[in-house]
């Protein structure tokens, strides 16, 4: 079980004021959704939480210790990041790419063993890309590549998942399968935080939400307290119509814009 905590965290978004400092606690079993318009700082936040980017102020703590003081290998054993963008620098197969997830668990020149291979194959099958194991990654479709990225983190087996728009490029069936996988991870006592553009996936699958505004303001808390239409309309500068389906709220853009919003 691992906990990720921020204390007075101000992420470093260039040319922006500090806004509200973040005091977050991501606990085992929780699924957090990070919502906000383009450019609000969602990716910057996830990269800061993963220790890939320095905060402007405050700190990130992993199990009570400053992330910056921990060895990267130790961090990588506990914390997995699904990137929004990925650069496939050299021609690797799908299987080889998934096996990269085992690297934090191997010593520097150690080859992957049978158990590593078993974990990678199981993750590929779980993400419905097992049949593509021998294919080169640069031949995959956008959705297949996205599922491989998630399979690689599943192979890594972290206790904390940070996922940047994990449903990007996915069709409806695979969106649901990925959200179910992340919920299952939380059910197993892991912690999940993900950036989402789909309010309805957040409403259905997340138990906590963080709303990030473009000026650095933020609010966070249990999902139901955050799903307030007026707050969401202010977040996106978009009027919303709300309905209820299967006991969960569903939000769709209304035709007229919110008062004071900009853009087309
Ligand atoms: N290296 C950089 N130099 C200048 N500006 C940057 C740099 N990196 C990020 N930014 C800016 O910081 C802001 C936050 O970017 P970030 O990618 O975190 O937003 P986001 O909320 O994830 O957006 P999106 O929904 O479009 O993915 C954006 O305005 C972006 O242009």
From TrEMBL:
UniProt-listed PROSITE patterns: ABC_TRANSPORTER_1, ABC_TRANSPORTER_2
Query: What positions does the domain ABC transporter occupy?
Result: 4-239
- Write the record's keywords in alphabetical order, separated by commas: ATP-binding, Nucleotide-binding
UniProt-listed InterPro entries: AAA+_ATPase, ABC_transporter-like_ATP-bd, ABC_transporter-like_CS, P-loop_NTPase
Protein name as catalogued: ABC transporter ATP-binding protein
Q: Recorded GO terms, molecular function?
A: ATP binding
